[in-house]
Each structure stands twice: as structure tokens, then as C-alpha cells.
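In practice, a research group might receive sequence data for several interacting partners and want a quick structural hypothesis before committing to experiments. The following worked case mirrors that situation: the sequences arrive first, and a predicted assembly follows.
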Amino acid sequence: MPDINVKPVSESGIEMKADGTTIIFSGSINHPRPQMFMEPFIEDVHNSIVDNKIKEVDLDITDLRFLNSSGIREIVDWVLKMSKLPEDSKYKINFVCSREHKWQESSISTLIYLNQNYTNKVMKD
Amino acid sequence: MENSAMLNINKSSQAESDYLDVAFLRNWKTIPLAMDFFKDFTQSRMETCGDTHKIGIAVSELLENAVKYSFKPGIRIKLDKKESDNTIKLKVYNFATEKHAKRLITRVKELNESDSLTFYLERMRESVKNKEESAGLGLARVYHETEAKISVRYFRLKKLVEVSATITLQNEED
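A structural hypothesis for the assembly, expressed as C-alpha cells:
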């Protein structure tokens, strides 16, 4: 299976990278304008997934301590962008969450309402 | 000077209530510190509650709005916890123009008349249309994810806006 090819990003205490078909966010996103670094990274991820015809990816946020609403907006943008693709190009996004960071339960539960057919939440201890 | 943080902390442990009162200038970097501090304070007072993360979410989002929209330095956040129940009242103050305050009052009215999930999803969709403009996503998040009762007041003479969020935490066995 092809991998997601993107350059890792390390910015303001946040790490974003891809490993195989898993995208990993770690640190804490409470930057006033996270779109400055999240938007280009997510754009590259999305393009790589589409170009490589990948059908399912994991977004591992188990080590993401916090995500502010400006960061949530970038994830919303990604989910809606994926949702606008033609049916045969759409891919599934699994949000891999940690029970340790309790905000993830409520925030991700809401996000998956945006596209319940193509998003999923997986809780890990 | 404007960007240097200054914390004034008053903590009182009275029979009927506990409170924190923190003031700082207008520094984004203070927000995560305040978020952790208020969350830890709540956790220490309400050990049986498993959802004190809600205080962290509310403090972060309300302070982000205050820092973003205040037209001059001077942000204040107060937490009031009554001994008798699991209710926390947060109040955040910042300087705001009348125009901004009116928009905020309208938004809070809309929010209080809506189903929280529907409103939050609407704000999410709206927020990506123009990322330079506020879509009220932070307030919608607090309303839905913390189940807060939100209200807003504007003190015209002082040009001060007060956003209040009342959050009831749950005991873990509930």
C-alpha cells in the first residue's frame, strides 16, 4: 500500500508528520493562527492521499494535549474537502484518540457528525 | 509592555465558595498557562468529578476571544465555585467596542435559542468559508462541549464586555 508523502512540520510546540497511512499530531495546538502551518500540511496530506488513491487513513492525536477552535477549524476544512471529492476518490479518516485527554472525546465526537460515512472515532487507553 | 503577562491571583477559601480572580494584560502565551491553572484548581476542589477538562476548554476559548477582540490591554477572568454543588461560574472581562459587543450579544442570543449540536455544526461549516472572519466557533464549542449556560453583558461607559459561562460538572459515579 502506498504511503502518505509529506514533509513533517514542527512549529510552536506542535509536531505533525505521516508514518505510512497514519498522520500523527502531537503537542498542544493553542496558537492564535494555526492555519499558517496546519493548512499547508493538511493540504499536502490530502493531495498525497488522493494522488496515491489511498482509501483509509488514521489521524493519531493520542499525544495531542489540546486543540483550540482555530485548530478544529482546520480539521473541519479537511473533512469537508474530502467530502466534496467524487465518490470514488473519497477516503475514510479514522480519528485515533486517547482517553487520557478528555477533550478529545467531545471534540472528535462532534467532528464526525460532519461526515458520518467517511469519519470514525477510535478511543485508545 | 503590552505583551508582557502579569498575573494577579486572589484565592479565597470561604465556607460558601472558592474563587480565583486572575488579571493579565493581553498576551496569547498566558492562555495555556491559565487553562492548566484553572483546570488544576477545579480538579483539586472537585476530585470526584471526571469532567474538569470542560473548565480547560471554556477558559481557553473565552480567553482567546478576549485577547483577540480586546482593543486595549487588560483581561480578567474569575472562577466562582459554590461549596453546595458542582457548579462553576466563569466570567471573562475585556475591553470591547460597542459594535463588537452588539455582535457578541446577538451571537449569544442565537446560541441560546439553538440546539447546541446543530449550532456548533453550523458554526463549523461557516468557519471554513472565510478564515479571516470570526464564525463564533469558540463560543459554540463551549456551549456544546461543556453544556455551559452562556450570557453576555456590556458596560457601555467602561467599554467592558463580560462573558459568563456556568458549567455543572458531573460526579464520576453519576
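Before designing any experiment, note the following. Chain A touches chain B through 22 residues (CB under 8 Å). Chain A is about 35% helix and 35% strand.
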